[in-house]
Amino acid sequence: MRYSQFLIPTLREDPAEAEVMSHRLMLRAGMIRKLAAGIYSTLPLGERVIKKTAQIVREEMNRAGALEVTLPFVQPAELWHESGRWNVYGKELLRLKDRNERDFCLGPTHEEVITDLVKGVISSYKQLPVNLYQIHIKFRDEIRPRFGVMRAREFIMKDAYSFDVDEKGAEESYRKMYDAYCRIFERLGLKFRAVEADSGPIGGSFSHEFMVLADTGEDVIVACTDCDYAANMEKAEIQAPQAAPVKKDDFNELQRVETPQMKTIEEVTGFLNVDASSLIKTLVFASAHDPVVALVRGDHEINEIKLKNLLACDHLELADEELIERITHAPRGFAGPVGLKDVEIIADLGLQGRINFVTGGNEKDIHLINVNINRDFTVSRFADIRCAQEGDSCPRCGEKLTTTRGIEVGHIFKLGTKYSEAMQATYLDAGGSSKPMVMGCYGIGIGRTAAAAIEQSHDEHGIIFPEPIAPFSVIIVLVNPTDEKQKQIAEHLYNDLLAQDIEVLLDDRDERPGSKFNDADLVGIPLRVTVGKFAVKENMVDLKWRKTGEVKQVAVDSVTEAIAENLRKTNFT
Ligand SMILES: [Zn+2]
Question: Is pTM, for the whole model, over 0.85?
């Protein structure tokens, strides 16, 4: 491809709208342009990256035995009524009517459509298992689309759905997808980690997220320093330390202290001169059922997902001012467990074995000191309801946990029979009885993966693409296109590389060399060949690696072989 005939509208300045690096660099490199909030056009350079990413995903899905299909983007409401999700999906589901006033939606996901399809074409155990996938557009009407394609409303996703005769088969399908995902992210050239994820009310250990590691990632990954345990923050369990039995003789006398206007942990611990670990945070939650009170140490954070799973409820949120007052008879900031009536109190395991706590006094501007469990209040139950922290103990081996950041790019999930039962996707087993198919679903955000690659790998000059998804493997910078000799060498090299099936971009534009070099760095092509005076005089060109900045002088005659050799190495290690 010749740069002069290609469309790469690079920008010199950082676009004001971009909050994260990948968004900024994709705009600056001319990969994408915004049409509306969360809706982007992909330009030719971006398209090459997306296509390459999608192709690797496709190849590995095919290798794992999944079959490619294309499912409709516009979906009839009837299917969503059948699954029971039309009314519960919320505003992310963009609903519309056709000319006959029939309800439709833009597909945010395709469980309904695929279940309906499979139900119509599969009736016997002999046709199972089957795993169908597509690489196609989704639309989710996010309340706050941001970060470019990282959290767009319209996006390209690979979604796969497996159907099995039983749990055992479904587990095998899941395992195949897990392995396929590992291969995909390895082949994409990304540093990643598969982590256990929360699987919601369905439970079980059958949900994993695939995280691309990046310091700028939104998600926190908790991983063991010794064994291979890794989970996302929502899910990460903590091995509670063995709590020594408390001695009642060590209980100090309960006291009421005035803490005017002191509502935060810092204010209270600073004023009372105590460590945050000896303070109890008392959090009131509104749930689908009765309100509950959760207690965690002042140096710990509540994990609402764990609490929600513990309570087995769909809906849980921090109480508003009114509910706090109703439960505690005090304004926000002064809640404590002492004296609470008719409400379940769930305490984190971290409170066990400790004494003489500071808590809110359930009275404005009052805290209590020397509060002790079982003397001053009772706990309904103890449970692991807090977020893991650096230094906590691994639930598997007891060694230290550490935290890193990542970007979720894939999620695999065992669905069970939720959809097949609701939508009657059944098969006849060998004995002739009808059973619901057991399902799994498996997603990868294609644009998100490309963006995550940029978050993981960039510098102050621009993107540093991993070779497998780089828009081109090589860029030839022809320093002076009006110099016939330089031009001849560059053209010759260009044709040589093309003949070897190497994807090459020839920068033949009549631009300053400096701006050509800047653009080459910005768009992140792994190898740059500079054809300038040196090439004419000495018959040598500069070969520069974008990632390391390393430069080698190579004879014009051997540069094609050197590049081919380098690509063979990067693709097979
Ligand atoms: Zn461990």
Answer: yes
